[in-house]
Amino acid sequence: MAFLPPTATFTAALLLLLLFLHTPLATSSPLNLTGDSLSPYEVLQGYNFPVGLLPQGVLKYKLDESTGRFHAYLEGSCSFSLEGSYQLKYKSTISGIISNNRLKNLSGISVKILFLWLNIVEVVRDEDELEFSVGIASASFPIDNFYECPQCGCGLDCANSNGKLPAYHQWPTSPGPKLAGI
What we know:
- This protein is mainly beta.
- The protein has a single domain (9-156), classed as at5g01610, DUF538 DOMAIN.
- It has two helices and ten strands; from the N terminus they run H-H-E-E-E-E-E-E-E-E-E-E.
- The relative contact order is 0.23.
- Mean pLDDT is 74; it is low at 1-36 and 163-182.
- Keywords: Signal.
- This is DUF538 domain-containing protein.
- It holds the Pfam family DUF538.
């Protein structure tokens, strides 16, 4: 399906989720972000995902290393627009199963495509691309679109937002998403 515009918004949100799910130094018991623990962003990097899959402000996380099951906790729900095309929503709790280069059974993250809100259910890293699946379709984006964490309310354009969602602006050109569908 060709309903996903070539933007980094969808990719950034998915990458943030993937980063959170792939914590390399996690133990079989749940981990919380306290003291010297790894941040959820460091955990994502340990599973070969960029930090930009998660928005700024993840308060804590739990990871069961034996199953890969994880939960990430935000202060509240979070939404923002990326590149003026994608709108993303994160619930206050994000969960799924993480393994190297793969996040699956995701819940708590959705993307608005046209007029429909669809749940992002899987993110897979294939070399320098991230593939995001909403079940019925998927889109791939360059991984370098996810090196920066978006902020709730303003995404990646907070300096120009004045407390509002960012206006559309041109991003450097890059190949559009590879679509696989239905």
